[in-house]
Design goal:
The protein has helices at residues 4-11, 15-21, 52-68, and strands at residues 23-29, 32-38, 73-84, 92-102, 106-115, 120-134. The chain is α+β, with helices and mostly antiparallel strands and 141 residues long. It has one domain (4-134): Hotdog Thioesterase (Thiol Ester Dehydrase, Chain A), CATH 3.10.129. It is globular, with a radius of gyration of 14 Å. Pfam families: 4HBT.
Length: 141
């Protein structure tokens, strides 16, 4: 089984999530992942709270890690549903993704997004498609 450092190295190929947005993988197990986003000024909207797109990206990336870190086939999202519940009060957002069901060609995940103070900021459900493409990750220049 891959180590956390190996998983982080593989997913560094997702440069938007890891470099541009700054998401960090904290935990990864088969069908489960926890990712974190240390909030910075560029993550905030005009109202001074985390922008919905930043929260969505965190949830989507947590899904990607939980669905793909230990799989031999790539899963991609087909449909997301996100419900924003409260503004974040802390300095870090955490997304915990877990597999509800995974079949031969589709999968279903739930992602809970909280802040470091325990505020439930949002939850997301993701319907994914399990492709026939082998899971390999390459960093592009």
């Amino acid at each position: 089984m891959a180590t956390l450092e190996e998983i982080r190295a593989r997913f560094s190929a997702d440069r938007f999530a890891t470099e541009t947005v700054g998401i960090e993988i904290r935990e990864a197990q088969p069908g489960r992942a926890v990712c974190a986003l240390q909030l910075r000024p560029e993550h905030m909207n005009a109202a001074g709270i985390p922008q919905g797109g930043a929260i969505f990206t965190l949830g989507d990336f947590a899904f990607a890690v939980s669905a793909n870190a230990f799989s031999d086939r790539i899963s991609v999202s087909m449909q997301h549903d996100i419900t924003y519940l409260a503004p974040a009060k802390g300095t870090t957002l955490l997304a915990e993704s877990h597999c509800v069901r995974c079949g031969h060609s589709t999968c279903f995940y739930k992602v809970d997004i909280t802040d470091d103070l325990g505020t439930q900021v949002a939850f997301m459900t993701v319907n994914g498609f399990v492709t026939n493409h082998p899971a390999k990750f390459e960093k592009t220049s």
